[in-house]
């Protein structure tokens, strides 16, 4: 039984990420912004295809996937254009 029991190990101190004290507030603000953007993306990814199906009256999953593809393509193109 000992061979299948879970084992916990502690990481050495050097692998922990540490930020300077002056940047702690900036880092916290950046993390919350990233979380909110990912949350909105996940929310649209979950409900977007259903909204498109409801608007078009078509139950094909391809239509919902196409809507997400168009959204991602527009975002990618805007990043490429703005960085040039």
**C-alpha termini separation:** 60 Å
Report the uncertain regions.
Answer: none
> Please, how many helices?
2
Please give the oligomerization state of what you see: single chain
Estimate what percentage of residues fall within beta strands.
Answer: under 5%
- Say how many strands there are: 0
Query: What is the typical, i.e. mean, pLDDT?
Result: 76
- Gyration radius, to the nearest Å? 22 Å
DSSP helix fraction:
55-70%
Q: Overall 3D geometry?
A: extended
* Major sheet details: none
Secondary-structure-based class equals mainly alpha
Series of H and E elements: HH
Summarize the structure.
By secondary structure, this protein is mostly helical.
How would you sum up this structure, described in words?
The chain has 84 residues and is mainly α. The chain has one domain (23-83). Helix content is 67%, strand content 0%. It is built from two helices and no strands. Helix 1 crosses helix 2. The model has no long low-confidence stretch (mean pLDDT 76).
SSE topology:
Elements: H1 24-56, H2 61-83
Helix pairs in contact: 1-2
């Amino acid at each position: 039984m000992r061979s299948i029991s879970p084992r916990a190990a502690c990481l050495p101190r050097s692998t922990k990420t540490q930020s300077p004290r002056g940047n702690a507030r900036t880092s916290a603000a950046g993390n919350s912004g990233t979380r909110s953007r990912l949350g909105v993306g996940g929310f649209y990814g979950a409900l977007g295809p259903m909204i498109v199906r409801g608007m078009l009256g078509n139950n094909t999953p391809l239509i919902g996937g196409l809507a997400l593809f168009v959204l991602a393509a527009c975002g990618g193109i805007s990043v490429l254009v703005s960085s040039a």
